[in-house]
Amino acid sequence: MNATVLLDPIRLDRPDTDVREKPFPFMIAHGQLPDEARGELERDFPKYASAGFFPYDPVDCGPSVNALVAQMTTPQFARAIGRYLGIENLGQYPTLVTLCRALNKRHGTIHTDSRSKVATALLYLNTQWPDTSDGCLRFLNRIDNIDDLVAPELKPLYGEFAVFKRCDNSFHGHLPYEGERRVIQVAWLTSEEEKLRKTKRGKFSRAFKKLFGVLDRKLGADRDRNASHRD
To answer: Is the dihedral of CA 115, 58, 81, 143 positive or negative?
Structure first.
């Protein structure tokens, strides 16, 4: 697979791409990955033993996923995203990449993202999804109502893409879901110090979950559908 064709900013300019400035700047784009790469990306996705997002490590991934991460973190791709979000020179900010293979039901509570993030992009890689709203990304008007959507929810299917500017009201989340949900997340951060801090925290979380995976699944398993947390 020629890595240059995995992720092309030109694909963002589709008739069905949804770009909005209110209540916060965001974009939802479909079909952002070539069909012929589906098998390689499925094969090369990291086989994490635990649920949740973990800091990207090339050793965990095969060549196609490493190529995709490299393309998602170029200054050129960031500038293309920034134009849609109204962020000048987004590529100047350091990037933090995290990957998720599976979730527990405690994940997905409504939040805004921390102030250390300038923008966040999510690229989904599930080859199929059940006929349910559970686990589907929702951009929201409020922090206390998962059903107050500002756009149609996004199923985490192969090639679906979402990106948003972090704001005090950039509320998002999803209904409780347990199972495989593959996604690559790129966050543009305010500083290298924040990147180092978040990476250390993510590595600690991964180590903890390896030791206490059963406990991690039980925590928050019965959470309310409108549960939220302040970043």
So the answer is: negative
Phi and psi dihedrals of 96, rounded to 5? Answer: -120, 120
Q: What is the pLDDT of residues 126-160, one digit of tens each?
A: 999 999 999 999 999 999 999 999 999 999 999 99
Q: Where does residue 161 rank: exposed (0-12), middle (13-18), buried (19+ CB within 10 A)? A: buried
CATH of 16-211, one of 3.30.1540.10, 2.60.40.10, 2.60.120.620, 3.30.565.10: 2.60.120.620
d(Cα 227, Cα 204) in Å, to the nearest integer? 25
H-helix or E-strand spanning residue 200: helix 192-211
Closest among 32, 72, 55 to 156, alpha carbons compared:
32
